[in-house]
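Exercise 4. Each item below gives a protein and its sequence. For each, produce the structure-token representation.

Item: Acyl-CoA thioester hydrolase (Methylomarinovum caldicuralii).
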Amino acid sequence: MAEFTWPVRVYYEDTDAGGVVYYANYLKFFERARTEFLRALGFEQDELLAREGILFVVRSVQADYRRPARFNDLLTVSCEVTEVKRASLAFSQQVRRGDTVLCEAAVRIACLDARSFRPRPIPPTLIQRIIDG
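Answer:
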């Protein structure tokens, strides 16, 4: 499973009083990359909700903040699927400025039934596309 990358520009609204990216905004950058990853595979989350009745939610995140990003930086946000289970996916994600890793995270996403919010198997077509890349 190949690494997927997505460019992100740091806007003023992403920064804190110290002029660096506020720590929680890295989670937003990771979310955007995962959404674009699914889109690149041909899956829109609103269509998965309407057609399959499923939602993807963050179950856990472990983040390591290494260096600050600042206003107007052009960043690359990556995601790579590291584990596929029946009803969850594990991702390794990074935010980089050039070759410098600023933040990295291990993120587990759960697939839930939209009505009951109980775990539900990931559609086989999606799993196959993830595996095939």
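Check: The helical segments are 25-40, 45-52, 124-132.
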